[in-house]
Write a structure and sequence with these properties.
Rossmann fold; flat; 434 Repressor (Amino-terminal Domain); eight-stranded mixed beta sheet; 20 helices; alpha/beta; disordered C terminus; single chain
Length: 440
């Protein structure tokens, strides 16, 4: 996410690190460099101008402390202004005092509306809600079938009306939701390849009928200025309450994320960071600013870990580590929990200082599947007592997993290194743990 933008901004700040003190001259030069980076990332021209004017004003108007380098000083100002630009704080979904709450999802065709509807339903279901998905996109072939498949995969009901009129479908869906107490209702509306009057009139009729609590505009994060222009057009006609940025796991330049909020004055509520239905995150301006500036997002990393970790399981694992009883079954459990957290590329990008170093480097997710297959090819006894894995057992395990004996050997070697580390940490005092990790 934002790898190219992050790398280019990092280069600007690197140039500043060689400067002894800030002057009007080198500040203006840095602002020129940042301007080129923002425009190259497809940030709206006026948004970029206003942003840099505020940064330059603050940089020129303050005294740099001797304990702070010029680069750190400018990064702090850019970070603070970026947070303001992105919306200052998280904007949560609103609820209707009179159920059901209605979330109307709008956007151009191909922006990822239908998939987002399913992701949102899954997200709300995990919070104890009983959502209903409504297949109100009668324009795109197979749109209704797609939503039915997605709804079935997450255990959320999908309403599909008999009428050819999307307004009537939404009306029938609302009556259905009230009848069986489903809340919220998520409307997957039709899109077009471009903004047109027919589309807007249809959406305006639906809005007037159902009076949605939220109108969420879905923007393809890979389309740059096109997403900003369509956001402006949709907002002018529908006055949407928030936006959603999709496909941020792709080769996106990031301009849409930075510009849409400034252009429409409406908050970004969610970002989609992968194709899987669990790849949806609430939008936190401060955390996103940290990611853009290469500072990582350790808070989101910890929250992802907590969402997949079972407390009792974690306590049991801690006790095993203290007793140095770490087995291949435990290794498999930890591996499966890491997989639940999502794309490893995205997870590593949340760790401060790591994201920029991963630019142009692909993390091979297949390694996890191969390791899992090897462990699952072992018998329960072999997983508990890896020392019994002689040559013939290793050949059998390799055949069962469709891999080479060398892969089995490599897995056992990694496991043994982890056991050594666990034992040394158990014996070490707090001051020695850092040294142990350094040696590994």
């Amino acid at each position: 996410m934002f790898d190219d933008l992050t790398a280019k901004l990092d280069q600007v700040f690197r140039n500043l690190r060689g400067v002894g003190k800030l002057t009007e001259s080198n500040i203006k030069e840095s602002m020129g460099d940042i301007r080129r980076v923002l425009l190259d990332a497809d940030v709206n021209l006026q948004v970029a101008r206003d942003f840099l004017a505020r940064v330059e004003e603050k940089a020129l108007g303050q005294q740099v402390l001797k304990s702070v380098s010029p680069a750190q000083f400018v990064i702090k100002i850019v970070h603070d202004e970026l947070v303001l630009l992105l919306g200052e704080k998280e904007s949560r979904l609103s609820s209707s005092p009179k159920p059901p709450t209605v979330h109307m999802v709008v956007g151009l065709q191909g922006s990822g509306k239908t998939t987002f509807c399913a992701k949102l339903a899954r997200y709300l279901k995990a919070k104890g809600k009983r959502p209903l998905l409504v297949a109100a996109d009668l324009q795109r072939p197979a749109a209704q079938e797609q939503l039915l498949v997605l709804g079935d995969s997450i255990g959320v009901p999908v309403f599909r009306g008999d009428s050819k009129n999307p307004v009537d479908v939404c009306d029938a869906a609302m009556r259905h939701a009230r009848k069986i107490s489903l809340d919220p209702v998520i409307l997957d509306t039709a899109g077009r390849l471009h903004v047109d009057d027919d589309l807007m009139e249809e959406l305006e009729k639906i809005r007037k009928l159902v009076q949605p609590t939220e109108i969420l505009f879905v923007a393809d994060g890979m389309t740059g200025q096109d997403a900003v222009n369509s956001a402006r057009a949709f907002h002018d006609r529908l006055q949407f309450t928030g936006s959603v940025l999709t496909k941020l796991d792709g080769d996106t330049r990031g301009g849409a994320a930075i510009s849409i909020r400034a252009v429409t004055s409406k908050p970004v509520k969610f970002v989609s960071v992968g194709e899987k239905l669990d790849a949806l995150e609430p939008f936190y301006p401060d955390r996103m600013a940290g990611r853009i500036l290469g500072k990582g997002d350790i808070v989101s990393f910890v929250e992802k870990a907590q969402s997949v970790m079972d407390e009792e399981q974690a306590a049991e694992m801690e006790a095993k580590l203290r007793r140095a009883e770490f087995t291949l079954n435990d290794f498999l459990t930890q591996l499966q929990q890491i997989k639940k957290m999502g794309s490893m590329q995205n997870l590593l990008g949340m760790i401060p200082g790591v994201g920029a170093k991963l630019k142009n480097m692909q993390v091979d997710e297949r390694v996890f599947r191969h390791t899992e297959a090897l462990i699952l090819s072992m018998t329960p006894l072999e997983r508990e007592r890896p020392k019994i894995l002689n040559a013939s057992r290793r050949r059998r395990i390799a055949r069962g997993a469709g891999q080479a004996v060398q892969d089995v050997n490599r897995l056992i070697q990694q496991y043994e290194q982890m056991v050594v580390m666990v034992k040394r940490m158990r014996k070490a005092g707090p001051g020695q743990i850092k040294r142990i990790f350094g040696e590994l």
